[in-house]
Each structure stands twice: as C-alpha cells, then as structure tokens.
C-alpha cells in the first residue's frame, strides 16, 4: 500500500526512490514481450486489429511515441481489462448464487439468445442481452472494481453557500464505493437489486464503476465484453449455488486499490447438460 500511495500521490518522488507497483522481473518480462512483438510485426509487415497495432500505426505516422510509452499504454490496457473483469465476474456469480430467481431469469435470456443465433454469439447479440447488462451494472454498483479514484481539480471550485474552495491543481480522492453505497442515491444500497438498472437511460448520475469523462477507464468496453461473454457461457452450462465454505458477510479488504474480499469466495457449480 505504501508503494501504491507513493506512486499515485508523489509519482516523481517515487520514481527517484525507484518505487514501483510492478515487480522488477514482471516489468522486465513484459517489456521484452512487447518489444519483440513490435519488432516482429514491423519487420514482417504484420497487421492485427488490436490495441497494439493502433500504437504502432501512431508511432509510424510521425507522432512522437517512444517504446516506453507503448509498453506503458499496453500494460495499462492489459491490467485495466483483466483484473477488473475477473473481479466483476466473480462478484456477479456470487450474487446470482444468492439470488436464484434472478439467475433462472438470466439463464433463460442467455439460452434464448444462443438459440436465436445458431448457438453462436455476435457482438451485437452479446450486448443485446438486457437482463445480463442489468446484472453486471448492479454488481458494478455494489462492488465497483476501483473503490477510490484520484483526480486533479482543473479549475477553482467554490462550494455554494460556504467559504470552502478547492483550488485548481488540488488532488481530489473520489470515494466511489461510498457513493455507490449511499442510501440518498441508492435506497437499500446493500441489496443487490437488478431493477435499479431496468431503464439504462435513467441511470443515477452517481455511478462511476470505471470513472468518467476524458479519464474514463481505457479498458472499460473490453472488460465489459469479457464479463458478458464469460457469464453467458457459464450460465448456459451451469447452475451456480452458494457454498457453506464462504464466510459471510463478505468483508472488503481496505488495503487494496482494486476491490478484494478479506475471505475467499467459494461457489458450487452444477452442470446442466
């Protein structure tokens, strides 16, 4: 946590102290893989429709992009789109195990969608499952992958009716988990209630599972698609039940940047076919 605190709040000092959130051997291995991949693609004129290819095109178009920047951007995309996906999938399955009626309804939607698409899912079909979207949205509300977001104030802001002003350049911490669990915005916030997101056009303005604005999480769409596909595949083939091995209620570990439970989560899976 000290390294995380330093790199977020005092990045220049952390750099001088050689503090990093990534273990040196991991950083070295990842850098080698990206460098070799870029060199291979450029040497053999390999074109792929992926994020790395966009960065290579940007570099070759005359824009000043260094190899370190390419490595950094791909690493950010990699971490943003994987850990958050795994956590959200786990917590959605946990909630579905506790809510069998919602699970049955969601399974009906999944099976129906597969049948309408010859047992194959296009991107449009995957994103068109409304109840699945509601389940994920509510999970992200109750269990946001990132519990707190650091931001920098872009202009002076004075709170109406007070003498309090946040000056431009001030670092502000946004307590996403606290906002998502605030009963003023979400009645009965501890309850996993899919009806909250039945009308996606009327989402609460206080909903930031992946941040917002120009600093919105770069891996959001990728992560969301992964979660949808993973849940659809699992629910089509398995029924999910609670396990007595899971200690309840769940306790969030306060010493992690990404949301994590203090205890392990166990689930029972019963194959359908």
From TrEMBL:
It is found in: Endoplasmic reticulum membrane; Microsome membrane. Gene3D superfamilies: Cytochrome P450. Belongs to the cytochrome P450 family. It is a peripheral membrane protein. The lineage of its organism: Eukaryota, Metazoa, Ecdysozoa, Arthropoda, Hexapoda. Its cofactor is heme. Its main location: endoplasmic reticulum. It comes from the Eukaryota. One of its GO terms (cellular component) is endoplasmic reticulum membrane. SUPFAM superfamilies: Cytochrome P450 (SSF48264). PANTHER family: CYTOCHROME P450, CYTOCHROME P450 6A16, ISOFORM B-RELATED. One of its GO terms (molecular function) is oxidoreductase activity, acting on paired donors, with incorporation or reduction of molecular oxygen. This is Cytochrome P450. PROSITE patterns: CYTOCHROME_P450. Heme binds at residue 217. InterPro entries: Cyt_P450, Cyt_P450_CS, Cyt_P450_E_grp-I, Cyt_P450_sf, Insect_CytP450_Detox. It holds the Pfam family p450. The keyword Protein biosynthesis does not apply. Keywords: Endoplasmic reticulum, Heme, Iron, Membrane, Metal-binding, Microsome, Monooxygenase, Oxidoreductase.
């Amino acid at each position: 946590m000290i390294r995380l605190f330093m790199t977020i709040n005092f990045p220049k000092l952390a750099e001088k102290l050689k503090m990093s959130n990534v273990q040196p051997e991991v950083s070295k291995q990842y850098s080698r893989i990206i460098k070799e991949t870029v060199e291979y693609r450029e040497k053999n004129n390999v074109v792929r429709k992926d994020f790395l290819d966009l960065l290579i095109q940007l570099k070759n178009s005359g824009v000043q992009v260094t190899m370190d920047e390419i490595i950094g951007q791909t690493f950010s995309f990699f971490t943003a789109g994987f850990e958050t996906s795994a956590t959200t999938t786990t917590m959605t399955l946990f909630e579905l195990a506790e809510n069998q009626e919602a699970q049955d309804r969601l399974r009906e939607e999944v099976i129906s969608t597969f049948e309408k698409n010859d047992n194959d899912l296009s991107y449009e079909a995957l994103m068109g499952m409304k109840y699945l979207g509601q389940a994920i949205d509510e999970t992200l509300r109750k269990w946001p992958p990132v519990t707190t977001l650091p931001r920098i104030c872009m202009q002076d802001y004075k709170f109406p009716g007070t003498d309090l002003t946040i000056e431009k350049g001030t670092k502000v911490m946004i307590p996403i988990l606290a906002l998502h669990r605030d009963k003023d915005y979400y009645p009965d916030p501890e309850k996993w209630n899919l009806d909250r997101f039945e009308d996606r056009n009327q989402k609460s303005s206080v909903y930031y599972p992946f941040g917002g604005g120009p600093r919105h999480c770069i891996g959001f769409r990728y992560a969301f698609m992964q979660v949808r596909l993973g849940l659809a595949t699992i629910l089509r083939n398995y029924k999910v039940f609670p396990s007595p091995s899971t200690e309840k209620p769940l306790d969030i570990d306060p010493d992690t940047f990404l949301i994590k439970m203090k205890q392990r989560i166990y689930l029972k899976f019963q194959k359908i076919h």
